[in-house]
Amino acid sequence: MEQRLLSERCQILAPSLTGILTRMQQMSLIERCRLPNDQRRVMIHLSADGQARLGKMAPLVDRQYQLIEQAWGVEVLRDTFTQVDRLLAAQATAVPLVPLPDHDQARTDKADD
Question: What ranges make up the beta strands (E) of 1-113?
């Protein structure tokens, strides 16, 4: 998967993901390779070691979700995922920013007090 796409899917800023991927590469969990037709783009692949660890972890993650489901109930878990999906979808709508006072105007206002 391309690094940019991985960043988007994980909802992790690119600089943060770069650090994570560097550590994962140092642990031999992933391999990175630049695309031959565009050296700026980087593809990320799980290494054989990464695949092996994923194979060991996946059943543990599945079992943990089963325990959460048993403790909280299917409906609570489903509602939680629905709300997270709604929140992620809502991010496509820009939120207006509060206008900040001009630095010089703020000093003038403070002097008037």
Answer: 30-35, 38-46
